[in-house]
Design goal:
Blueprint (H helix, E strand, L loop, with lengths): L5 H14 L3 E3 L11 E3 L1 H20 L4 E3 L8 H6 L2 H4 L1 E6 L6 E3 L4 E2 L4 E2 L12 E4 L3 E3 L9 E3 L5 H6 L1 H8 L5 E10 L14 E11 L4 H18 L7 E5 L11 E9 L2 E10 L3 H10 L5 E3 L4 E3 L2 E8 H12 E7 L5 E7 L10 E5 L5 H14 L5 E3 L5 H10 L4 E5 L14 E6 L5 E5 L3 H9 L1
Parallel strand pairs: 3-11, 21-22, 21-23
Antiparallel strand pairs: 1-2, 4-5, 4-8, 6-7, 9-10, 11-12, 12-18, 13-14, 14-15, 15-18, 16-17, 19-20, 23-24, 24-25
Helix pairs in contact: 2-9
Bound molecules: adenosine-5'-triphosphate.
């Protein structure tokens, strides 16, 4: 049994992410920039698979949700009306001893007053509000009249386009508008790898409803979202639902759940599911002077809909997926000796590469030709990777390490040299069990698609 601590496990995960091209530090050659990350060739696939699956279940597989892709910069008036300009802030404290800038809730208190978590110093400034929005200027003049912000959440575009979307989609309540996109927060203290970043992506749904349906839909969406995480391979017992207590909830919210995950660095929020009442639309109606009401044709009533919002972080979920998938087990090497195998046990649905294709030997032209034929056959269906270099066992290990769920090997049986009944069959190896089965090449697309979807 290995006795790696959670901190060591996290260190291994961060180093695997860099070594295998999942996640790099942004601007690395210039020393990086705190709280910013780049997704490498495999990371971008993982992230896309996650976003595509979210879009599939939240939009495509439903009749009651449509999509939107709003701009990142919006009229400053949006951020005034939403309350972000005045109140989207964290309380910040400076440690006068070590000069650390801290969020007030990061201070430690061992019964002898507040202390700096870095140096233990007690010479701290009073907390002051630090607005988390990145300020910028639109147009050639840099003055107050041209100020706006990089959006700190994607949701506001949905609220301000509510009327347009309602008109074009002709949806009846309850219905939702979904969006995936970048958001920016000038976090005081980014940390825990990508968990708290300054630039990140959100997957948000605003699900509009009648006031009397709000509380029921809050439960409904909490349950749907838990199912989602299970369906991408996160164990139910590592997911937790926190009922946000009254005093911590936004004043307009009638109920909020945080869906949390047991990261190696502790239990932390993956997603918030909040019943936000009619606060957002009311604010924008008031500030813009434009009606954001819904007209109920049956009752002939006009009213501002209420909304339930499941708001998930792409980057946090990607990190949870990697932490969940990371495992070490024992497997035989080329000579049958047991060795430690590093495996990312991704659900096939989100694995960056779905299937690797190997000719047994790279210097046997018929094997190579057949393997390349299989790559061509599979490419329209799944993302495949061809690899001919090194011993076959080593090639499997490389794929295990990046979580490729299936491996196909073309061997001499495939060519039908010894047994003609095996002509045009290959071995299909499954990553976790390492079990191999013999399957006909022509059946590969169906088999893979059915096991990956
Ligand atoms: P936290 O309390 O951790 O700062 P929050 O409650 O402010 O998060 P929300 O405003 O509810 O977060 O945002 C919805 C989701 O967006 C979060 O559940 C999270 O997945 C994601 N998110 C928010 N801030 C960040 C960040 N700095 N880095 C990465 N993801 C984030």
């Amino acid at each position: 049994m290995s006795t790696v601590t959670d901190a060591q496990r996290m260190e291994k995960i961060v180093s695997l992410c860099k070594r295998r091209g999942l996640i790099f530090q942004s601007s690395e050659i210039y020393g990086g920039l705190n709280g910013l990350w780049d997704y490498g060739p495999l990371g971008v696939e993982l992230k896309r698979n996650l976003k595509n699956y979210w879009w599939r279940v939240m939009v495509h597989e439903r009749d009651d949700v449509v999509g939107l892709d709003g701009s990142i910069l919006m009229n400053r008036a949006v951020w005034k009306a939403s309350g972000h300009e005045d109140t989207f802030s964290d309380p910040m404290v400076d440690c006068r001893s070590c000069k650390a800038r801290l969020r007030a809730d990061q201070l430690i208190d061992k019964g002898k007053g507040r202390q700096c978590p870095n140096c233990g110093g007690k010479d701290l400034t009073e907390p002051r509000a630090f607005n988390l929005m990145f300020k910028t200027y639109v147009g050639a003049t840099e003055d107050e009249s041209s100020v706006t912000y990089l959006r700190p959440e994607t949701a506001q575009a949905i609220f301000v386009q509510f009327k347009n979307v309602l008109e074009v989609s002709r949806k009846k309540l309850p219905f939702g508008i979904a969006q995936i996109g970048k958001a920016f927060r000038n976090e005081i203290n980014p940390r825990n790898f990508t968990f708290r970043s300054r630039e990140f992506e959100q997957m948000e749904l605003e699900y509009f409803c009648r006031a009397e349906e709000g509380m029921k839909l809050l439960e409904y969406w909490k349950d749907e979202r838990l199912k989602f995480y299970e369906n991408i391979g996160i164990a139910r017992d590592k997911l937790h639902v926190l009922t946000v207590p009254d005093e911590e909830r936004a004043f307009y919210s009638k109920g909020t759940y945080d869906i949390e995950y047991d990261f190696p660095f502790g239990r932390q929020e993956l997603e918030g599911v909040a019943y936000r009442t009619d606060y957002d639309l009311s604010q924008h109606q008031k500030a813009s002077g434009k009606s954001l009401e819904y007209f109920d044709e049956e009752t002939k009533q006009k009213f501002i809909p209420h909304v339930v919002e499941p708001s998930a972080g792409v980057d946090r979920t990607v990190l949870a997926l990697i932490c969940e998938a990371y495992s070490e087990d024992q497997a035989p090497d080329e000579k049958g000796k047991m060795e430690t195998r590093l495996v990312l046990r991704f659900h096939p649905r989100i694995a960056p590469i779905k299937c690797a294709v190997f000719p047994l030997l790279k210097n046997k032209e018929p094997l190579v030709a057949k393997a390349k034929e299989i790559v061509d056959l599979l490419r329209p269906h799944v993302f495949v990777f061809y690899d001919e270099s090194g011993a076959i066992g080593r090639r499997y290990r490389r794929q295990d390490e990046i979580g490729t769920p299936f491996g196909i090997t073309v061997d001499f049986e495939t060519l039908g040299e010894k047994d003609s009944t095996l002509r045009d069959t290959v071995t299909l190896r499954e990553r976790d069990s390492m079990k191999q089965e013999r399957v006909a090449i022509k059946d590969l697309p169906d088999i893979l698609v059915s096991r990956i979807r």
